[in-house]
From TrEMBL:
Keywords of the record: Branched-chain amino acid catabolism, Cytoplasm, NAD, Nucleotide-binding, Oxidoreductase
Active site feature: K97 (proton donor/acceptor)
Source organism per UniProt: Streptomyces alkaliterrae
Subcellular location: Cytoplasm
Binding positions (NAD(+)): G197, V198, G199, K200, V201, G202
GO biological process per UniProt: L-valine catabolic process
Catalysed conversion reaction: L-valine + NAD(+) + H2O = 3-methyl-2-oxobutanoate + NH4(+) + NADH + H(+)
Protein name as catalogued: Valine dehydrogenase
Domain Glutamate/phenylalanine/leucine/valine/L-tryptophan dehydrogenase C-terminal: 161-367
Subunit composition and interactions: Homodimer.
Assigned GO CC terms: cytoplasm
Pathway in which this enzyme or protein is active: Amino-acid degradation; L-valine degradation
One MF term in the entry's GO annotations: valine dehydrogenase (NAD+) activity
Length: 368
């Protein structure tokens, strides 16, 4: 039978987090289904603006000493980020996130996804799920068989399909806004842009950049991802890894499009780019990195603002998906990013702090 259990290690980390600055979440559900092998965490940070909306990550956490604790931490951080992202995107949704613990290549199964769908359904609509790292449209079609609060489904099943399309489009709009702020024109033509991670989102971003006339340099841990980009755009340069990419001479924009924590105490001091704008979540490894970027004169476009195109797409799916309508809303990421830059200059704070202030004001108004 499907049940909800709190393991000793997870209880410990929850106790710690709910008495720390990372707390404040409305609900955290630890899920276990013995028959399918499912172990998952569903975190709801806020429903102040509406039902929590956020994707499902499928990840093994094999590098961690206590993978369950790492999964809880990841879910909590990602859920909080979704609250801010949805608020800045102007959506009537709060923030939530789910993590399924395991290697999707080894443990993902129909039975497991159906069990996960039952857990989401048990929340009665407080959390609406979608795709994330390790999950895909076809997975959401399976989850939806047990849960009507599922987005990111295939078009043949009434969904919007691949949300990475508008995620990349939104990042491109944020990059155009960064160019406007730095160089007075909303274009990357003639600029050198480094893209770290050319998977689901990154390869679409490269398409936009090449079409806009940018000089593009890429890297990815998966050779097949790089090969796909080069087959379409043979003029794109490739470097061995992210360490090499951040040191590319005369780099104008750095676009982290893989996992989080890309900006830390090691990368920021050697980063050659004049701006950072990418699709990855939680790019700032810890508080204070945004100040380090500002002190070096590097313009940072807050990740949860510019990568909101995907959540805009799946939110539209709940109302009968219309691509043109969703794309029009994602286009506004350009204006929102400029608004954040203006607020940062007015308040004398880094753009990340300015974005947080605006998002928090919107969530506070939703609670009133």
């Amino acid at each position: 039978m499907t049940d909800v259990r709190h393991s000793a290690s997870a209880d410990g980390v929850l106790h710690t987090l709910f008495h720390s600055d990372q707390g404040g979440h409305e609900q955290v559900v630890l899920c276990q289904d013995r028959a399918s092998g499912l172990k998952a965490v569903i975190a709801i940070h806020s429903t102040a603006l509406g039902p929590a909306l956020g994707g499902t990550r499928f990840h093994a956490y094999t590098d961690e000493e206590f993978p369950e604790e790492a999964a809880v931490l990841d879910a909590l951080n990602l859920a909080r980020g979704m609250s801010y992202k949805n608020a800045m995107a102007g959506l009537e949704h709060g923030g939530g996130k789910a993590v399924i613990i395991g290697d999707p290549e080894q443990t993902k199964s129909e039975e497991l996804l159906l069990a996960y769908g039952r857990f989401v359904a048990s929340l009665g609509g407080r959390y609406v799920t979608a795709c994330d790292v390790g999950t895909y449209v076809q997975d959401m079609d399976v989850v939806a068989r047990e849960c009507r609060w599922t987005t990111g489904r295939s078009p043949e099943n009434g969904g919007a399909g691949d949300s990475s399309v508008l995620t990349a489009f939104g990042v491109f709009q944020g990059m155009r806004a960064s160019a406007q702020r730095l160089w007075g024109e909303p274009t990357l033509r003639g600029r050198k842009v480094g893209v770290a991670g050319v998977g689901k989102v990154g390869h679409h971003l490269v398409n936009h950049l090449v079409e806009d006339g940018a000089e593009v340099v890429v890297t990815d841990v998966r050779e097949e991802s790089v090969r796909r980009v080069r087959q379409t755009h043979p003029q794109v340069a490739v470097v061995a890894d992210t360490e090499a990419l951040i040191r590319v001479p005369d780099l104008d924009v750095y676009a982290p499009c893989a996992l989080g924590g890309a900006l830390d105490d090691d990368t920021v001091p050697v980063l050659t780019a004049k701006a950072v704008c990418g699709a990855a979540n939680n790019q700032l490894a810890h508080p204070g990195v945004e100040k380090d970027l500002a002190e070096r004169g590097i313009l940072y476009a807050p990740d949860y603002v510019v990568n909101a195109g995907g959540v805009i797409q799946v939110a539209d799916e709940l109302h009968g998906f219309d691509f043109a309508r969703a794309k029009a809303k994602a286009t506004k990421i350009f204006d929102t990013t400029l608004e954040i830059f203006d607020r940062a200059a007015t308040d004398g704070v880094p753009p990340a702090a300015a974005a947080d202030r605006i998002a928090e004001q919107r969530m506070a108004a939703g609670r009133a």
